[in-house]
Amino acid sequence: MKFTELPVAGAWLIEAEPFVDERGLFRRDFCRDEFTAHGLDPNVAQGNVSENPRRGTLRGIHFQHAPYRESKTLSCVTGRVYDIVVDLRPASPTFLKWTSLELSAKAGDSLYVPAGCGNAWLTLEDNTNVHYYMASMYEPGRDGGVRYDDPLFGFTWPMAPAVISAKDRFYPDFDPKTLSRGD
Asked: How far is Cα 75 from Cα 132, in angstroms, rounded to an integer?
């Protein structure tokens, strides 16, 4: 596994190093020791799969408030996604900055999103599925979000969302003062 730190502090692209032979392809998707060596949270409390039948499906931008902040590691297992990570940690040197990248099943790469950052993806193909490990459990009522077109951030998307939940579409303009001290 090859780890490359992204412009948002603590976010990493994890590139697969596949082994190929006559049987096909094998690659490691997660390694506790390598995560620890790079300062990433190696805990896995929950695994989730997001199935997205339609191209242009937007999920996010989601996060959890302290003390329930969660890091996550995402992999696209079918199709392709355009992913955004936004830093919502007031004490971070990259607070309110964001970065984007494309994940695809073909490349087999993963994305590590540190606790305290928001995350969203937009599907670029029909039948795109994303698998992700969470370092802590989801805590109902402690979730938060940033609207995908919030003018504070100026997010750039490769296309307009075709499918988006009402909750994600109508988050209010983000106000950093709404973050608690622990965020």
From this structure: 6
Residue 51: CB atoms within 10 Å: 11
For the chain, the domains span 2-177
Q: State the Cα–Cα distance between residues 50 and 131, nearest whole angstrom.
A: 6
For residue 164, pLDDT over 60 is answered with yes
| pLDDT tens digits, 64-87 | 988 999 999 999 999 999 999 999
Question: Is 65 a known active-site residue?
Answer: no
**Domain 2-177's class?**
mainly beta
Establish whether 38 is a catalytic residue.
no
Measured from the Cβ of residue 178, the count of other Cβ atoms closer than 10 Å reads 10
Asked if residue 159 lies in contact with residue 54, where contact means CB atoms within 8 angstroms, the answer is no
Strands (E), 65-167: 72-78, 80-87, 98-104, 110-113, 117-123, 128-134, 143-145
Which of 82, 112, 132, 148 is labelled catalytic?
A: 132
